[in-house]
Automatic annotation (TrEMBL):
Organism: Zemynaea arenosa
Database matches in InterPro entries: DUF1697 (IPR012545)
A Pfam cross-reference name: DUF1697
PANTHER family assigned: BLL4334 PROTEIN, DUF1697 DOMAIN-CONTAINING PROTEIN
Residue stretches in coiled coil: none
Protein name: DUF1697 domain-containing protein
Length: 187
């Protein structure tokens, strides 16, 4: 592989290892992505966050390849969202809620995968969420859930508006993934 054509990507798998459904060992997931021709494959936590490098390609095409391989090789069906490292950096840089979100595990980031997703969520920003906060960036919706994610009306509204076409991560996890992407870019 020509290293000048290499790019860092992150794959976020929806609903992996939550409860008893869609169980997959991270070692198996790393192997699967490696078998697709990607290198420097690393997983973050046990919930389907994978950082890897590969030839420049459209993130959607990579997501489709991973989704198909999951079904064929592991028997798991899961929506996969892939972001290139610069797209992930944009999500991180645009977060306007960092001044109010005092606990990053309660700051949710919903990745917007289609242009229409932003239009689905924007009307929700005009609502009064009490102590919660909701903001929309170019590639993500950010939700501050001070009482917890399961208690969050704003997170539930965003989830309902976007349906199963999105995935979300708390800010702590997203920052860990972003740090790995940044480290890969400096190698």
């Amino acid at each position: 592989m020509n290293t000048t054509d290499m790019r860092c990507y992150v794959a976020l798998l929806r609903g992996i290892n939550v409860g008893r459904a869609k169980r997959i060992a991270m070692a198996d997931l790393r192997t699967l992505i490696g078998e697709l021709g990607f290198v420097e494959v690393k997983s973050v936590l046990n919930s389907g966050n994978v950082v890897f490098q590969g030839q420049r390609a459209q993130p959607k095409a990579i997501a489709t390849r991973i989704e198909e391989a999951l079904v064929m090789k592991v028997g798991v069906t899961a929506r996969v969202t892939v972001l290139a490292s610069d797209e992930l950096a944009e999500v991180v840089d645009e977060n306007p809620l960092l001044d109010v979100a005092t606990e990053h595990s309660r700051l949710m980031t919903f990745i917007l995968t289609k242009p229409k997703d932003r239009a689905l969520v924007e009307p929700l920003t005009a609502m009064d969420w009490g102590r919660e906060a909701l903001a929309v960036g170019t590639r993500a919706a950010y939700v501050w859930c001070p009482e917890g994610i399961l208690e969050s009306r704003a997170a539930a509204a965003v989830g309902k508006a976007l349906g199963d076409g999105t995935t979300s991560r708390n800010w702590s996890t997203l920052c860990k993934v972003h740090t790995l992407c940044q480290a890969a870019a400096t190698v």
